[in-house]
């Protein structure tokens, strides 16, 4: 009897495996005009005063031999403009709740120093401050997203920062701004009220923070009623749904533009594993953590629906990405890690989740932009490279501000060591000029997956495609081989009378464009 059961078990397992490898997955795409717009801010970034993000990353100073504009590297400006970076969050992260913005204005030699208590205990000379950041955002064409200090700052301090950056009339703060060389206000729209208030931002309870939020938010006026002034609450740590519930219940909706959520794909906080030298087991676990994002945004959104059924308040996933052990030989407090194809498929799958939840997720910030965690750009003195994650963000920027086309399908499975994950993810959109874009990811480390998409309803006929993949999952772009992983034309699909048949290679990201 035992033998029969075992054979039946083996048969079932083999059947499931062959399903994953041979079956064609049918993806249906709804051509609808009433679906939400994919807010371009989903493709946002994050730059903290951490490690070599600002100093030695973005900012080299205007006396550097590295070509720069007011101290900001020209190669980074060019790369981020090509990415169509929509917004940039600054100055933290944990750093934000230790940052006093008045330390970073006025003549640089006179600025006080502080110790960066969270990140390596290094001395911060405040040479990169409000003017440097906001002028840089203007160069990038990106909306600035300022994180205000609630943990160790005051209500007055944050109210003053808003007046300094946003008020054009006469006032103590706008006069000070003019004295420091900037006549016109920058009109900053996105304001974070603290960061990780449950942790480094002050170890507050949700109830206590909700009260603090109401107080800080009250004194932050949209000085000139320009509209689009968005106050964002420090959100939950991953799956802390109670945090979201308490904020939604206790903060009047007219004071709340967005609620943050932070989620990092970490295998084990005590032993995160190497960024490059990883096993399939570690890969599978990283992807499992990353794909939790689907459940997180679904459940946080469901909590918000109870208080805000019209979805006026957005989810802002203002920190997301992979977090590994720092690269050997680098400062543990600087969070420098390399970026392989694992990071590319992680980014592609996560962005598909955000696109598909565009009704509620209206901003997200990859952590972090330069030289920290899942960076899109790495620098080494005068050298700069773009990572596989950079190319995913670039391939996907076609979805920015396009109308979502809802997708529906049952994903084949990626089997590893008795566990499974959905192997394929997809999202689609139609832009203002009528172009249709479909992004597909196969996370399976060994098996290709076949999909079929009915395109008859989509109003487009001719397709081209781009793929990002590599010969090895662990491959990455180094300073010696900076172009090992770059997007190339993809021909692995056929358009058979209105049906696109596509074979997605293992660990790859594809974006199709239909005209
Ligand atoms: O991104 C690194 C850190 O992660 C941020 O400072 C903090 O907000 C989060 O815990």
> How far is it from the N-terminal to the C-terminal residue, by CA?
59 Å
Spans where pLDDT lies below 50 across 5 or more residues: 1-20
Attached small molecules: alpha-L-arabinofuranose
User: Which CATH architecture of the largest domain would you pick?
Assistant: Alpha-Beta Barrel
Number of domains: 2
Pfam families: Alpha-L-AF_C (PF06964), ASD1_dom (PF22848)
Enzyme class: hydrolase
EC number: 3.2.1.55
Family: Belongs to the glycosyl hydrolase 51 family.
Brief characterization of the structure:
The chain has 515 residues and is an alpha/beta fold. It is 27% helix and 25% strand.
What does the model show?
It comes from Flavobacterium psychroterrae. Its EC number is 3.2.1.55. Homohexamer; trimer of dimers. Keywords: Carbohydrate metabolism, Glycosidase, Hydrolase, Signal. Residues 318-508 form the Alpha-L-arabinofuranosidase C-terminal domain. This protein is α/β, with parallel strands linked by helices. It folds into two domains: 20-34 and 405-514, Golgi alpha-mannosidase II (Immunoglobulin-like), CATH 2.60.40; 40-404, Alpha-Beta Barrel (TIM Barrel), CATH 3.20.20.80. It has ten helices and 27 strands. The strands form seven sheets. Strands 2-5-8-9-10-11-12-13 form an eight-stranded parallel beta barrel, surrounded by five helices. Strand 18 (413-416) and strand 19 form a beta hairpin. The protein is globular, with a radius of gyration of 23 Å. Mean pLDDT is 94; it is low at 1-20. The structure holds alpha-L-arabinofuranose. Alpha-L-arabinofuranose binds at residues 48, 92-94, 195-196, 319, 367-368, 373.
